[in-house]
Design a protein that fits this description.
This protein has 184 residues and is an alpha+beta fold. The protein has a single domain (17-171), classed as Glutaredoxin. The chain has helices at 48-59, 61-66, 79-88, 102-107, 158-171; strands at residues 17-20, 25-27, 36-41, 69-74, 96-98, 112-114, 128-130, 133-138, 143-148. The strands form two sheets. The protein has a seven-stranded mixed sheet. Strands 6-7 form a two-stranded antiparallel ribbon.
């Protein structure tokens, strides 16, 4: 496997087909919010840290909506496991997309892991799955900011993300980290 490719703020994000639990299939470009979309790549049903993060995001749904921001969670889980996440974690309001492929995860620069068996929740990890990633995408389909991780812990807190989106909008703050080439 090749190393993940970093996406550059201000540049278009990769295409991503989305298969939602209600049977709807669309692509990311058709699902962008009025101002932003927070695309949350989670490890899957086996991950208790993902459960905590997704519950925080669902609890802040009204805050995100007030900022014109859609929140979409995506995993490599097959539909059955994504349904278990929604039902057992009590996430009826959070859009969950499932069935992301390894190539799609790589296009987003996500790190990949292999199964180590059952987690502390007693659920078997997928044979191959993505590590967490958060992508704040402008309504024009360009990346504003990203947080890509190699481990399941130490994720950005939802309240900080909400406050940051408010700051970005209030101050018309530009994306940072946009230099992809520069002279030494």
């Amino acid at each position: 496997m090749s190393a993940p490719t970093a996406l550059i703020p201000g540049q278009p994000v990769p295409q991503l087909p989305l298969k939602f639990l209600d049977g709807t299939e669309t692509d990311l470009a058709a699902s962008l919010g009025k101002n932003f979309t927070l695309l949350v790549f989670y490890r899957g049903y086996h991950c208790p840290k993902c459960k905590d993060q997704l519950l925080e995001l669902q609890a802040a749904k009204a805050d995100f909506e007030a900022l014109g921001t859609n929140v979409i969670a995506v995993s490599m889980d097959p539909q059955e496991r994504a349904v278990s996440s929604r039902d057992e974690w009590q996430l009826p309001e959070l859009p969950l997309a499932h069935g992301m492929t390894i190539d799609q995860a790589r296009a987003w620069g996500l790190h990949m892991s292999t199964s180590r068996g059952k987690t502390s929740t007693g659920v078997e990890e997928l044979k191959i799955f993505n590590e967490p990633g958060l992508f704040l995408i402008r309504n024009d389909g360009t990346l504003y900011a990203s947080w890509v991780q190699t481990v399941p812990f130490c994720r950005p807190k939802t309240a900080e993300i909400v406050a940051s989106i408010g700051f970005i909008q209030d101050k018309n703050y530009p994306p940072r980290g946009t230099l992809s080439e520069f002279a030494a």
